[in-house]
Amino acid sequence: MEKYYEKELLEELHDIQETYGFISEEDILRISEKRDIPKAHLYGVISFYSMFHLKPTGKYIIKVCDSVSCSLNHSADIVKVIKEHLGIGENETTRDKKFSLEVVECLGHCDEGPVMIINDTYYTHLTTNKVVQILDNLD
Amino acid sequence: MEKIFLKSDLGKSFEDYEFSGLKNSLKMEQTQVIDKIKDSVLKGRGGAGFPAGIKWETAYHVEDDIKFVVCNADEGEPGTFKDRFLMENLPYKVIEGIVICGYAIGSKYGYIYIRGEYTQAIKIIRKTIQKMYERNILGNNILGTDFSFDIKLVRGAGAYVCGDETSLINSIEGERGMSRIKPPLPVFEGLYGKPTVVNNVETLSAAAEIMKYDYNPYLQLGTEKSKGTKLVSISGDVYKPGVYEVEFGKMTVKEIVNELAGGVKGSGLGFVIPGGISTEVLTENEWDVPYTYEDLFKIGTNIGSGGMIVVSKDRNYLEIIKNVSDFFRDETCGTCFPCREGNKNINKMVSEIYERGYPMKKEIEIISDIKNAVSLAARCGFGEASVNLILSILENFYAKKVK
Ligand SMILES: Cc1cc2nc3c(=O)[nH]c(=O)nc-3n(C[C@H](O)[C@H](O)[C@H](O)COP(=O)(O)O)c2cc1C
Ligand code: SF4
Ligand code: FES
Known about the structure:
Bound molecules: flavin mononucleotide, iron/sulfur cluster, FE2/S2 (inorganic) cluster
Number of helices of chain A: 7
Number of helices of chain B: 15
Radius of gyration of chain B: 21 Å
Strand order of the largest sheet of chain A: 2-1-3-4
Largest sheet of chain A: 4 strands, mixed
Oligomer: heterodimer
């Protein structure tokens, strides 16, 4: 079962996304040739998954949960304060390429809301003050 | 009171964990393991509730050199975090369950598909797999037997619909996470066209726990139709949100909320969403219902994923409907026209209702009609269940009061 011992496409895309912050045209060309998958098909796959980006993102990708339980815990205030503090909207990146903001569905920490992840790190029990502090402390 | 069964090894280190469930299984015939899981009437804990033993038995009888076990760790249903709890706190038990299933059905290849956002669980599971290889609980000739089994971890990439088993299979294959037409069921033709058992994290962990005992512990837990225990993740307007283990039939939803989760915050109960945002709400008149599959089903709702969200009567229910409707509009995979367009249309109406502050009778009727159309045409459970919660709130709290 040689297929089983190959790296899955999703894993390969994750590794590129993690290293470079996005999946470039050259990456796609390379994967397309290596795996013998049409480029258009790869684009279709990549764009289906919200964690993959075709354009460069900020050094820090902020994802704030906006699903029911967090919304009951006022996640809207958290989103608002991040937007104001960074001067960007949803799915936008700051001009210095430091931060991108995404509003996402349940992050599985509903008992500790409101919640966000920045890259690999979870931040729970957020308050508007705490969020500003967290952002200011990232370099 | 919480019933500690699945949680029983909480706090135990990897080094101290004995893998007795796996050791016992390896001493038994494959069919004996399957029979024990069948007798336990362990139902799938991912939401659909299909008996795990029957799925295993079917896969066992399909003849093929290559079979797969896939652990569904794509947990994305809002309000649900029990699989994350298991992966972070009892990772060895999760993997043990996958290996046991592999042994029982005659598979050598396992996958665990974890949603990409679960960065901590991913790290922990990755490390656990590595250590299990080192202890020869994975790999060739496991614990000196003839049985060999490998496991790979695949990360999801931010698509809720990939939690559906056929979408998840497509996703592992490197495709868009769109569902497949059933039949064929994955146990006959799943991953790479091969017989595949897809089970939820909690289902597999429970199987591992059941195999730990010489007798069948599930026969002494729960009711006739709902055996064993269930992890309930509670959030929303309660004082002590968290993951609690409940023995079926021993507590009502009301007792779970009041005694385990510390009671409702604010000026009283509005409603409880019992099992994720695809399940119908329970009002104050209904929540004194025993927590079992059959009792919740009888009053028109569902255990679902076990993601319980409590909402106090101080909340604007229309804001919640709007939030839920946004979710279904954004997360549909779009294959079935009625699911895609229906959820979009409902979202438009719900937004207007939210702005206005109340619904019209006509709108509730239209939403109910769309619900029927979407359920009938849906290829997967997403479409079937997408309107349940929205309609149940409108019917319970508004239908009688509006024109
Ligand atoms: C849209 C959708 C999302 C789903 N998400 C999950 C999920 O996150 N985890 C899960 O175990 N099952 C999920 N399911 C159910 C799976 O299709 C499948 O029934 C389950 O993984 C089987 O395992 P079980 O029998 O052990 O529950 C989902 C189903 C649908 C239709
Ligand atoms: S019911 Fe909805 S989510 Fe499921 S396959 Fe059809 S369009 Fe996709
Ligand atoms: S609702 Fe926000 S983490 Fe689940």
